Amino acid sequence: MERAARAAALGHGARIDAEQQQELETLVRTDDDARVRSAALSALVRGAAHRSAVASWRVAATDPDRTVRRRAAELAPALGTAAPAQAVLTLLADPEPLVAEAAAFALGERARPGPRAIAALSAAATAHEDPLVREAAVAALGALGDPGTLPVVLAACDDKPAVRRRAVLALAAFDGPEVETRLKTALTDRDWQVRQAAEDLLGTDETNETNELA
Questions:
Q1: Which end of the chain has the least Cβ crowding within 10 Å, N or C?
Q2: Are 61 and 71 contacting, i.e. CB atoms less than 8 angstroms apart?
Q3: What total number of domains does the chain contain?
Q4: CB atoms < 10 A from the CB of 164, how many?
Protein backbone atom coordinates (compact mmCIF):
# COMPACT_ATOMS: atom_id res chain seq x y z
CA MET A 1 0.00 0.00 0.00
CA GLU A 2 2.85 2.38 0.79
CA ARG A 3 4.48 1.71 -2.59
CA ALA A 4 1.19 2.22 -4.35
CA ALA A 5 0.57 5.48 -2.50
CA ARG A 6 4.03 6.76 -3.39
CA ALA A 7 3.56 5.84 -7.04
CA ALA A 8 0.17 7.58 -7.13
CA ALA A 9 1.61 10.71 -5.52
CA LEU A 10 4.17 11.09 -8.29
CA GLY A 11 1.45 11.70 -10.84
CA HIS A 12 -0.09 14.71 -9.12
CA GLY A 13 0.89 18.32 -9.66
CA ALA A 14 3.59 19.26 -12.13
CA ARG A 15 4.92 16.93 -14.80
CA ILE A 16 7.21 14.24 -13.52
CA ASP A 17 10.93 14.51 -14.22
CA ALA A 18 13.04 11.92 -16.01
CA GLU A 19 14.06 10.14 -12.80
CA GLN A 20 10.48 9.85 -11.60
CA GLN A 21 9.34 8.62 -15.00
CA GLN A 22 11.98 5.91 -14.97
CA GLU A 23 10.89 4.86 -11.48
CA LEU A 24 7.25 4.61 -12.54
CA GLU A 25 8.11 2.70 -15.70
CA THR A 26 10.06 0.20 -13.63
CA LEU A 27 7.15 -0.24 -11.24
CA VAL A 28 4.70 -0.84 -14.11
CA ARG A 29 6.94 -3.50 -15.56
CA THR A 30 8.40 -5.27 -12.54
CA ASP A 31 6.55 -4.67 -9.27
CA ASP A 32 5.02 -7.85 -7.88
CA ASP A 33 1.87 -6.10 -6.59
CA ALA A 34 -0.91 -5.32 -9.06
CA ARG A 35 -2.01 -2.32 -7.00
CA VAL A 36 1.42 -0.76 -7.38
CA ARG A 37 1.53 -1.45 -11.10
CA SER A 38 -1.90 0.13 -11.56
CA ALA A 39 -1.03 3.19 -9.48
CA ALA A 40 2.27 3.64 -11.29
CA LEU A 41 0.57 3.45 -14.68
CA SER A 42 -2.00 6.06 -13.66
CA ALA A 43 0.73 8.39 -12.44
CA LEU A 44 2.76 7.86 -15.58
CA VAL A 45 -0.16 8.67 -17.89
CA ARG A 46 -1.02 11.77 -15.84
CA GLY A 47 2.50 13.10 -15.44
CA ALA A 48 4.47 12.10 -18.54
CA ALA A 49 4.15 12.98 -22.21
CA HIS A 50 1.71 10.62 -23.84
CA ARG A 51 4.11 9.25 -26.41
CA SER A 52 6.65 8.41 -23.73
CA ALA A 53 4.03 6.78 -21.50
CA VAL A 54 2.54 4.55 -24.19
CA ALA A 55 5.30 1.91 -24.00
CA SER A 56 4.47 1.20 -20.37
CA TRP A 57 0.78 1.38 -21.18
CA ARG A 58 1.27 -1.41 -23.73
CA VAL A 59 2.90 -3.53 -21.04
CA ALA A 60 0.02 -2.90 -18.66
CA ALA A 61 -2.53 -3.75 -21.37
CA THR A 62 -1.14 -7.30 -21.42
CA ASP A 63 -0.56 -7.60 -17.66
CA PRO A 64 -1.48 -11.00 -16.18
CA ASP A 65 -3.64 -9.28 -13.58
CA ARG A 66 -7.09 -8.21 -14.77
CA THR A 67 -7.17 -5.12 -12.56
CA VAL A 68 -4.07 -3.75 -14.27
CA ARG A 69 -5.52 -4.48 -17.70
CA ARG A 70 -8.70 -2.73 -16.67
CA ARG A 71 -6.69 0.30 -15.54
CA ALA A 72 -4.94 0.35 -18.90
CA ALA A 73 -8.31 0.31 -20.67
CA GLU A 74 -9.63 3.09 -18.45
CA LEU A 75 -6.57 5.23 -19.18
CA ALA A 76 -6.64 4.74 -22.94
CA PRO A 77 -8.81 7.83 -23.57
CA ALA A 78 -6.32 9.99 -21.67
CA LEU A 79 -3.60 8.90 -24.11
CA GLY A 80 -5.71 9.82 -27.12
CA THR A 81 -4.34 8.59 -30.42
CA ALA A 82 -1.10 7.55 -28.71
CA ALA A 83 -2.93 4.48 -27.39
CA PRO A 84 -2.77 1.95 -30.24
CA ALA A 85 -6.22 1.06 -31.54
CA GLN A 86 -5.29 -2.60 -31.92
CA ALA A 87 -4.29 -2.83 -28.27
CA VAL A 88 -7.62 -1.34 -27.20
CA LEU A 89 -9.44 -3.79 -29.47
CA THR A 90 -7.56 -6.61 -27.78
CA LEU A 91 -8.77 -5.31 -24.43
CA LEU A 92 -12.33 -5.29 -25.76
CA ALA A 93 -11.92 -9.03 -26.40
CA ASP A 94 -10.53 -9.61 -22.89
CA PRO A 95 -12.18 -12.52 -21.02
CA GLU A 96 -12.72 -10.28 -17.99
CA PRO A 97 -15.97 -8.32 -18.53
CA LEU A 98 -14.82 -5.29 -16.55
CA VAL A 99 -11.78 -4.98 -18.82
CA ALA A 100 -13.92 -5.30 -21.94
CA GLU A 101 -16.41 -2.76 -20.58
CA ALA A 102 -13.65 -0.19 -20.03
CA ALA A 103 -12.24 -0.87 -23.48
CA ALA A 104 -15.65 -0.32 -25.09
CA PHE A 105 -15.89 3.06 -23.39
CA ALA A 106 -12.36 3.90 -24.55
CA LEU A 107 -13.21 3.07 -28.16
CA GLY A 108 -16.25 5.32 -27.95
CA GLU A 109 -13.98 8.20 -26.96
CA ARG A 110 -11.68 7.90 -29.98
CA ALA A 111 -11.96 10.66 -32.54
CA ARG A 112 -11.34 8.30 -35.48
CA PRO A 113 -12.10 4.77 -34.31
CA GLY A 114 -11.91 3.17 -37.75
CA PRO A 115 -14.02 0.41 -39.30
CA ARG A 116 -12.44 -2.39 -37.23
CA ALA A 117 -13.38 -0.67 -33.98
CA ILE A 118 -16.92 -0.03 -35.23
CA ALA A 119 -17.26 -3.68 -36.22
CA ALA A 120 -15.88 -4.90 -32.89
CA LEU A 121 -18.21 -2.66 -30.91
CA SER A 122 -21.17 -3.77 -33.01
CA ALA A 123 -20.30 -7.41 -32.35
CA ALA A 124 -19.91 -6.79 -28.63
CA ALA A 125 -23.21 -4.91 -28.47
CA THR A 126 -24.96 -7.74 -30.24
CA ALA A 127 -23.37 -10.94 -29.00
CA HIS A 128 -21.22 -10.44 -25.90
CA GLU A 129 -22.39 -12.75 -23.14
CA ASP A 130 -22.07 -10.11 -20.43
CA PRO A 131 -24.80 -7.42 -20.44
CA LEU A 132 -22.39 -4.93 -18.88
CA VAL A 133 -20.20 -5.14 -21.96
CA ARG A 134 -23.17 -4.98 -24.32
CA GLU A 135 -24.34 -1.86 -22.52
CA ALA A 136 -20.93 -0.19 -22.76
CA ALA A 137 -20.62 -1.13 -26.43
CA VAL A 138 -24.03 0.34 -27.26
CA ALA A 139 -23.10 3.52 -25.41
CA ALA A 140 -19.89 3.73 -27.42
CA LEU A 141 -21.80 3.32 -30.68
CA GLY A 142 -24.08 6.13 -29.61
CA ALA A 143 -21.10 8.33 -28.82
CA LEU A 144 -19.57 7.63 -32.23
CA GLY A 145 -22.85 7.98 -34.14
CA ASP A 146 -21.83 5.97 -37.18
CA PRO A 147 -25.01 5.74 -39.33
CA GLY A 148 -24.23 2.15 -40.29
CA THR A 149 -24.58 1.01 -36.68
CA LEU A 150 -28.20 2.11 -36.30
CA PRO A 151 -29.55 -1.46 -36.78
CA VAL A 152 -27.32 -2.64 -33.93
CA VAL A 153 -28.56 0.09 -31.60
CA LEU A 154 -32.17 -0.60 -32.57
CA ALA A 155 -31.68 -4.31 -31.82
CA ALA A 156 -30.21 -3.45 -28.43
CA CYS A 157 -33.48 -1.73 -27.56
CA ASP A 158 -34.88 -5.25 -27.05
CA ASP A 159 -32.09 -6.39 -24.70
CA LYS A 160 -32.07 -6.45 -20.89
CA PRO A 161 -33.31 -3.28 -19.12
CA ALA A 162 -29.91 -1.68 -18.56
CA VAL A 163 -28.92 -2.28 -22.17
CA ARG A 164 -32.30 -1.01 -23.40
CA ARG A 165 -31.86 2.21 -21.43
CA ARG A 166 -28.44 2.77 -22.92
CA ALA A 167 -29.65 1.92 -26.41
CA VAL A 168 -32.55 4.37 -26.20
CA LEU A 169 -30.15 7.10 -25.12
CA ALA A 170 -27.79 6.15 -27.95
CA LEU A 171 -30.60 6.77 -30.45
CA ALA A 172 -30.06 10.49 -29.85
CA ALA A 173 -27.11 10.23 -32.24
CA PHE A 174 -29.30 8.98 -35.10
CA ASP A 175 -32.31 10.17 -37.04
CA GLY A 176 -34.95 8.76 -39.34
CA PRO A 177 -38.41 7.24 -39.06
CA GLU A 178 -37.08 4.02 -37.48
CA VAL A 179 -35.61 6.03 -34.64
CA GLU A 180 -38.81 7.92 -33.91
CA THR A 181 -40.87 4.73 -34.09
CA ARG A 182 -38.54 2.91 -31.69
CA LEU A 183 -38.56 5.80 -29.24
CA LYS A 184 -42.35 5.84 -29.24
CA THR A 185 -42.35 2.11 -28.57
CA ALA A 186 -39.96 2.66 -25.66
CA LEU A 187 -42.53 4.95 -24.03
CA THR A 188 -44.43 1.82 -23.00
CA ASP A 189 -41.39 -0.20 -21.90
CA ARG A 190 -41.70 -2.22 -18.69
CA ASP A 191 -38.69 -0.40 -17.23
CA TRP A 192 -39.42 3.14 -16.06
CA GLN A 193 -35.90 4.33 -16.82
CA VAL A 194 -36.26 3.21 -20.41
CA ARG A 195 -39.55 5.10 -20.59
CA GLN A 196 -37.92 8.16 -19.03
CA ALA A 197 -35.07 8.10 -21.53
CA ALA A 198 -37.55 7.95 -24.40
CA GLU A 199 -39.58 10.78 -22.89
CA ASP A 200 -36.49 12.95 -22.59
CA LEU A 201 -35.60 12.41 -26.24
CA LEU A 202 -39.10 12.78 -27.66
CA GLY A 203 -40.20 15.70 -25.54
CA THR A 204 -43.26 16.34 -23.40
CA ASP A 205 -45.76 16.69 -26.24
CA GLU A 206 -44.95 13.27 -27.68
CA THR A 207 -45.04 11.69 -24.24
CA ASN A 208 -48.40 13.15 -23.30
CA GLU A 209 -49.89 12.10 -26.62
CA THR A 210 -48.69 8.52 -26.15
CA ASN A 211 -49.92 8.38 -22.56
CA GLU A 212 -53.35 9.63 -23.62
CA LEU A 213 -53.60 6.96 -26.29
CA ALA A 214 -52.59 4.32 -23.73
A1: C
A2: no
A3: 2
A4: 23
